[in-house]
Amino acid sequence: xxxxxFFGAAMxxxxxxxxxxxxxxxxxxxxxxxxxxxxxxxxxxxKLETFDAxxxxxxxxxxxxLGDGNRLQVFVVSDLTAIGRLVGSNDxxxxxxxxxxxxxxxxxxxxxxRQKRFGEAKMTGEQVFFHEYTHSLQLQNTNKPLPQWLxxxxxxxxxxxxxxxxxxxxIGAPPEYRAEQLFQGRQVPISNLVSNRVDADYDMISFxxxxxxLTHYLSMEPSRKGQIDRYVAAIxxxxxxxxxxxxTFGDLGELEKTLMSYRRQKQxxxxxxxxxKLTIAPVTVTEMSPGAQEVMPYRIRIKAAFADVGxxxxxxxRAVADKYPxxxxxxxxxxxxxxxxxxxxxxxxxxxxxxxxDPKSVEALSLQGEALLELAKKSKNPxxxxxxxxxxxxxNRLDKEDPEPLYNYYRTYIDEGAQVPEAAKDAVHYAxxxxxxxPEVQVRSTIQFLRDAKPEDAKAQLSSLAFSPxxxxxxxxxxxIYDLIVANRQAEAVAMAEKELVKVTEGDD
Length: 509
Fold this sequence. Notes:
About 55% of the residues lie in helices and about 10% in strands. The protein has about 500 residues and is of the alpha+beta class. Among the domains are: about 150 residues, Glutaredoxin; about 130 residues, Tetratricopeptide repeat domain (Serine Threonine Protein Phosphatase 5, Tetratricopeptide repeat), CATH 1.25.40.10; about 70 residues, no CATH class. A hairpin with a 6-residue loop joins strand 4 and strand 5. The N terminus is likely disordered. InterPro entries: TPR-like_helical_dom_sf.
């Protein structure tokens, strides 16, 4: 379900229908690509914007400006088979997925086959999207660590919105795909749940399911108003999660009995938000150029597939570029394929051609700069580092809310081994704000704070990774480093981050 499931299987071809007519729907928060009619695309984009508006309303979230590079790209592929090809196999039971790299967040959902069976339950690609998008909004809203049951429970709480014909939206509807687990599965003891303790006797599906139930009850029961916030505040002040739960929720045995009764209600409540309470961003739909139509299946593979790019794919995209030599979209796609195939000289030339075709393309400028940076790392030529830096600054002037040029500008100094100026430090820290789901950026920002003797800022920056609900080596290392910072052992924290955590988050481990 999570975007952190990286698969090493070989990538298969992603074929587009012969009659494909790719449309692009553009709105404040999303850029959506789909082989759908304009009306279907507009309705789909409006649905996503409605969900975003409702999510921000119930969480009292701000809605800051977004640059083109920081809007979520949504690829609506044909069906679940196409999803399987992108991840490398149809055996993982994935109905859609979400990724949040500094190059720009990406979601992939199926269009024609909306449901995927998980045991006896069903989960749609849209529900996967809403679950994962909620995680993205959580990270945008706060860097306070959330316990796993609450992080996943709230994402499940948001995952099944009910869209009314009158433009209203219902939030908090029960996820039907969890019903079997809720009533027939083995229950995780509530003390385990609130302590983030998952034993071998219980699986993560139980954890997700009961996390949703507890979140739903605490959110909907008037007598429990404010308890979630007090519980999280207690944890962040240093109180162990179990102690925080007992102090906030009262007798846990009684709470567990109440939950078992609560789940048996004939109809659980949800929050209905009328359209007049929502400010929904407008949507513009355009049919893509002939070159973009042809290259789109390859573009999806580059942006969203879990596999390396080989020379065969570069050759196919090159054939499209030969037919449309001035199409900036095609050229950007080719340049990124060449970069991913480590043909940096070719990527520089192609990206430069894309800049000529579209001088205001931040993506093309960034690609040219990235390829130059790789060449500079090999040649150790200060002038090449300088040229790359200039491209990132130019891209940043065009879109100040795109995290990629900011981060790569900072990287030019790190990779050169040069002294990092204050402007570059500011750049990496702001990039971390704009790309909260990219662990590489979070770690680099943390390290810079530690180097500058700002342990509290470093601790806050690392907290989302250190307390991530998805336990892996990166999370464990981050937690160890977080504890070193808390213990005022900053030199050890920096050393461990630079020696071990950087390798994990940057894929060099």
